[in-house]
Amino acid sequence: MTRFLQQTQIRNRLLATLPAADFARFQPHLERGSYDQGAVMEMPGEPIARAYFPEPGMVSVVVRGADGTRLEAGIIGPEGMTGLALLHGIAEASNSVFVQIPCRAIHIDAGIFCSIIEESRPVHRRLLRYAYAFSIQMAHTILCNGRFTIEVRLARWLLMCHDRADTEDLSLTHEFLSLMLGVRRAGVTTAVRRLEQAGAVKIRRGGLGIRNRDLLLECAGDSYGIPEAEYARIINA
Questions:
Q1: Closest Cα partner for 25 from 154, 100, 120, 104?
Q2: Structural domains in the chain?
Q3: CA atoms within 13 A on the CB side of 31
């Protein structure tokens, strides 16, 4: 006998907060998997096979330029979903999407997902609200990259990781952070040391530990908070 995932057992907020009748449309088609760091969910130019609804952990959306330059454009955790192009009737991915902090995720076949949102305007509208909230996050990432120092940008990014992960210990190398922030590794090393000196983080072997979130918030200043508040307003409306 097939055992369906129960809504009360799901830790993705988009799925967990759907009205019961809407969740029932998804329920027979949902599966849960575990994904390690680096697991690929979408590749540019390739058909989107599944929509993923992450549980605690983090997924990165990375843009690649014609010259091979890569930069993180946004992050997704238990507040959201991948496969946003499907919401707009587009079947192919335009960016790389991969797991950054290991997680479990609920997934559904892309074709079935598209059928559900075509049949239910309320479900489609709700998921489009998340897509809009995600666009705000991306816009503020652009703002932060142009306005703030590496130290401030790193503090913001670590807070966003902390929001989505179940742990304060993050397995993130300086090389990886430099890719995510689009800066030289030396700049990341200096920024990490300053945050450690401020008492906000602790450098650990192979990663970082969030030592004091309040101090990290102080370091991030105005770079953090607006997308988070907008998500709460848009999704809870």
A1: 120
A2: 7-120 (2.60.120.10), 148-232 (1.10.10.10)
A3: 10
- Residue that has been written with the tokens 């897509």 in this structure: 131
Instruction: Convert the pLDDT of each residue in 187-199 to its tens digit.
Output: 888 898 999 999 9
Please tell me the pTM assigned to this model.
0.93
**What residues contact 70, with CB distance under 8 A and at least 6 apart?**
62, 63, 64, 96, 179
Contact (Cβ atoms closer than 8 angstroms) between residue 98 and residue 40: yes
Reported confidence tier of residue 2, pLDDT bands at 50, 70, 90:
low
Tens-digit pLDDT profile for residues 161-197? 999 998 888 877 777 788 777 788 888 888 989 999 9
Long-range contacts of 39-44 (CB under 8 A, 24+ apart): 39/98, 39/99, 40/96, 40/97, 40/98, 41/82, 41/97, 41/98, 41/99, 42/82, 42/83, 42/93, 42/95, 42/96, 42/97, 43/93, 43/96, 44/93, 44/94, 44/95, 44/96
Between CA 72 and CA 56 the distance in angstroms is 19
For residue 129, give both structure tokens.
Answer: 């609200």
